[in-house]
Design brief:
Helix 9 links the parallel strand 3 (141-143) and strand 4 (165-168). Helix 5 (75-92) packs across helix 12 (220-230), helix 21 runs antiparallel to helix 22 (405-421) and helix 22 (405-421) packs antiparallel against helix 23 (425-437). Among the domains are: 3-33 and 110-280, Rossmann fold, CATH 3.40.50.1220; 35-104, no CATH class; 499-584, no CATH class. It has helices at 3-14, 24-30, 39-53, 58-69, 75-92, 96-104, 113-120, 133-138, 148-156, 183-191, 194-202, 220-230, 267-274, 277-280, 286-290, 297-300, 309-316, 326-342, 346-360, 365-381, 385-402, 405-421, 425-437, 442-458, 462-479, 482-499, 502-515, 524-542, 548-562, 566-575, and strands spanning 18-22, 125-127, 141-143, 165-168, 207-211, 239-243, 255-259. The chain has a seven-stranded parallel beta sheet, with helices on both faces. With 584 residues, the protein is mostly helical.
Length: 584
């Protein structure tokens, strides 16, 4: 690549004057064994599905695929195939939206290197992909045509620190009404009024950087977006197309092909060379820096909801607080308290949270509530349940006095969880219902369902608890909140175990390692719970207590270091053959 091109690309990225546009190649590199993340794979899956549900039309479906796939260099052929599949599944296959969701809801992430490298550039993102892999791994918020105005407002913002969303220009798989799949829906997109405001918003950038298209990963929507960009003079300047072959034909005017290497394995490393010197030298990641901008606190969460707790705590611990202005300093303390809490450093978590809570008490209600929620979590984890109930009641009174929806949702959730552990089931269920009433986002609804599950599990209402946990699991997965998703799996395993359903127990426990991406240090208490549940399952199936002694030793460490008694009781009872799990 000519040095002048590389220098220009690097300059616009470092100056935050670029917007990234991601295609199917990004998802394919992250989930290499998932066919649905590429357009051709999705099309083939659709034909196979139709052949299964409509065996009488199998020959016709395969003939359509053969006919049109003969020249898939033509974008129109992809769109015709998409139109055909959408219409046929709606007629014979139980609904296109349901089928599309089934293709993406359980994607297996195997390599997050590329997505992390993209996120580190700290630029706004547009994607033609239907999956939510980028949001899942970066905790960026999601925008579709349903809330496009939010993304347009974000792009127009003078503060680049707020540009942290991922806009799915062709829809998100679980929102069928936003999906652009076939010819007719694609034409509707081109005629939509939003394109005018979208074009004006994009024009604030000096460059667009296209990532994730190339040989074998054809994407008609990507090609269509390139066409649209090249036809709009306001945004066609400095359009870079990252590719494995810089000499390949590029028919779109003003688009500069940029070679990064022989294949996709070289792309993450290339993106790293485009980062600023501060980023490459190990400065805080984009999401860590973002929390210093107080308007980003709730949307970024410093990666806490998607893992990385130990790394975040390590990154934030040595920061010289006296070098940061007062408000940002207390935001840092709040986020650090969350990281400490996640890795069971309860003393540090409480100290940071108390300082942050006091500072924000009469300044910003939501930040005050977030800090109090950390304190409440520590109390619950340390089995100080009555203290947790009293503290949560104070939170609820404060939130009700102020009348803020989100603050009340946080307080009611803390109170419901605390009451459940204290054995006050009826009141716990009442506040779980109140939490749901004040919930808007999938994350908030997931928390409400989980609170209900906790109340019912501790009251031995196992069937109802399972139903609540399953609802929480579904909504939590959509929101990308990894920690709550993990606890859903662990609690479901406990419930199924109590029912004697060992097969379902094993199934839930198998998800654990993949859910935490093998980062056990980021989830120490969850890991202990998993080991204990797994040991109980093995004991029940094999009546072999040999493995459980080591687990008991680990539980004893939790007792001595953190004052948490239930793991020791659990493991000790397991060794003498009692029925488990008990109501924890």
């Amino acid at each position: 690549m000519p040095n002048t091109v590389q220098a220009e690309l690097k300059k616009v990225i470092e100056n935050k004057e670029a917007c990234l546009v991601l295609g199917a190649g990004v998802s394919r590199a992250t989930c290499p064994n998932e066919n649905a993340v590429t357009w051709l794979g999705l099309i083939r899956n659709g034909i196979e599905y139709l052949s299964d549900v409509d065996p009488d039309g199998r020959d016709k479906h395969l003939a359509v695929l053969d006919c049109l796939s003969g020249n898939l260099a033509e974008t129109s052929n992809y769109l015709i195939l998409g139109e055909y599949i959408e219409a046929q599944i709606n007629t014979k296959g139980g609904g296109f939206g349901r089928w599309l969701s089934s293709q993406f809801e359980d994607l297996r992430v195997e390599d997050k290197t590329l997505v992390k490298a993209i996120d580190a550039l700290d630029l706004p993102i547009i994607t033609t992909n239907y999956d939510g892999i980028v949001e899942q791994l970066t905790l960026r918020s999601r925008c579709t045509l349903k809330n496009v105005k939010e993304f347009v407002t974000e792009l127009r913002s003078a503060d680049e620190g707020t540009r942290r969303s991922v806009f799915h220009i062709h829809g998100y798989y679980s929102e069928p009404e936003t999906i652009i799949f076939g010819s007719s829906s694609y034409q509707r997109l081109l005629k939509d009024d939003f394109l005018q405001s979208f074009e004006r918003a994009i024009s604030v950038f000096k460059a667009l950087v296209f990532i994730g298209t190339g040989s074998g990963l054809a994407d008609p929507h990507f090609d269509g977006l390139l066409d649209w960009v090249s036809q709009n003079s306001a945004i066609s300047h400095n359009v870079f197309l990252l590719t494995t072959d810089s000499t390949s034909a590029v028919t779109h005017r003003s688009i500069v092909p940029v070679r990064y290497g022989a294949d996709y394995t070289k792309l993450a490393g290339f993106l790293t060379t485009l980062q600023s010197a501060k980023q490459r030298s190990g400065g805080p990641s984009a999401s860590v820096r973002a929390f210093l901008n107080e308007s980003e606190l709730n949307s970024t969460r410093v990666d806490l909801d998607t893992g990385g707790h130990a790394a975040i705590a390590l990154a934030l611990s040595p920061i010289a607080l006296d070098e940061i202005e007062e408000r940002a300093r207390h935001l840092l303390l709040l986020e650090r308290s969350k990281a400490y809490c996640k890795i069971n450093r309860f003393h540090e978590a409480s100290n940071d949270a108390k300082v942050a809570s006091e500072y924000f008490r009469n300044k910003t209600l939501l930040f005050h509530m977030n800090a109090e929620a950390v304190i409440n979590t520590v109390m619950r984890d340390q089995e100080r349940w009555e203290d947790a109930v009293a503290q949560a009641r104070s939170m609820a009174a404060c939130a009700e006095a102020e009348g803020r929806r989100r603050a009340k949702a946080i307080a009611y959730h803390a109170l419901a969880r605390s009451l459940a552990l204290a054995g006050k089931t009826a009141e716990a269920l009442s506040y779980a219902a109140k939490t749901f009433e004040h919930s808007v986002t999938a994350e908030e609804r997931g928390e409400a369902f989980f609170a209900e599950g906790e109340a019912r599990r501790h009251a031995s209402q196992i069937d109802d608890a399972i139903a609540a946990y399953l609802k929480s699991e579904k909504t939590t997965f959509i929101s990308g909140k990894t920690d709550l998703y993990i606890w859903c799996k662990l609690c479901l395993a406990d419930c199924y175990f109590l029912q004697g359903n060992f097969a379902e127990t094993a199934k839930q426990l198998r998800h654990f390692s993949s859910a935490i991406r093998n980062k056990y240090e980021d989830h120490p208490l969850e890991t202990l719970h998993w080991k204990l549940s797994d040991a109980a399952l093995k004991w029940s199936l094999l009546k072999n207590s040999g493995e459980e002694i080591a687990v008991s030793d680990v539980a004893k460490q939790y007792n001595e270091i953190l004052g948490i008694m239930w793991p020791t009781h659990y493991a000790t009872g397991l060794r003498v053959g009692k029925t488990f799990p008990k109501k924890l």
